[in-house]
Input
Amino acid sequence: EVQLVESGGGLVQPGESLRLSCAASGFTFSSSAMGWFRQAPGKEREFVAGISSRFGVTRYVDSVKARFTISRDNTENTVYLQMNSLKPEDTAVYYCNVVSRTSYNTPSNDNWGQGTQVTVSS
Output
């Protein structure tokens, strides 16, 4: 059974940082491209960042480039999202999932975890 457990969210002020983690199990993590997505209130879920299974190829939505960094630890079956210079518009529930091995920005299934809330507010 695929399990994805996101953590690390919280309430921060604009300009601050957070590091999200996603612990994965139930599939071959080291062979899977992974991605982060987010859903703000009243909006559809959107792609944020993706990373290849190996070699660290990454892809980001334009709005987070140069501020967010996706990484992974295949020994720990965990994918991370380092978020710097956070803005109020980054407020959303953040989710991870397996993504397409070619585009890195499309979820490969509909198995979503509970997500982790990120709130950026002064």
